[in-house]
Amino acid sequence: MTLTRTVPGLWYLSLHLVFLVSWLPSPLVAANTTTDHIPGFQGIPWGSPLSARPQLVLVDPDDRVEIYEYRKRPPRFAQEPVESIKLYAIDDQFARVMIRYRNEATHNHIKQALVSQFGEIRHHPGAMVRGLNQEYSWRLEETEINLSYRGLGERGLLVIQSRILAPRFLELLSDHTH
Fold it and tell me: What CATH fold (topology level) applies to the domain 49-177?
């Protein structure tokens, strides 16, 4: 007799629990999901004009490509000091960031920060994950991230770019070679 009263009570409790969980915001339900989309870099959306950003200074003007750096020095990424952070605009549209750094400890810290934000590393064919040369990449909805590290000289390069706008750089190169 006790069992028949308990089972309907569990069913009723389970129904309420499912109903309650369905109303929770998704980050509480799926706390381990990764960000699969970043619309730019550090709050600057892809395609926006960099000339309108007071925190940036134009360091290399050109007809189609302009290169900016942050006014505040020294530059930092993932809470690590880096050699440089350069933001590239093509045709006055923000399209790419290149971050240069040195030493293996900085590389490991940056790599771990990217993994925690964007998920496990997606290796492309021919990519190296150990040894003197290492390459990692993440391909998101609007953004592509490529991390390269050369053990000889302990130099690293992180490229974050718009998947839509970055191909214009290749078009520009092909225009100059013809």
Answer: Protein Transport Mog1p; Chain A (3.40.1000)
Distance (Å, whole) CA 86 – CA 67: 6
* CB within 8 Å of 77: residues ≥ 6 apart: 85, 99, 101, 110, 158
Structural tokens at position 134: 């290492």
**pLDDT digit string, tens, across residues 22-31:** 333 322 222 2
> What token pair was written down for 86?
């350069």
Model pLDDT for residues 68-89, shown as the tens digit of each residue = 999 988 899 999 999 999 999 9
CA–CA separation, 86 and 70 (whole Å): 8
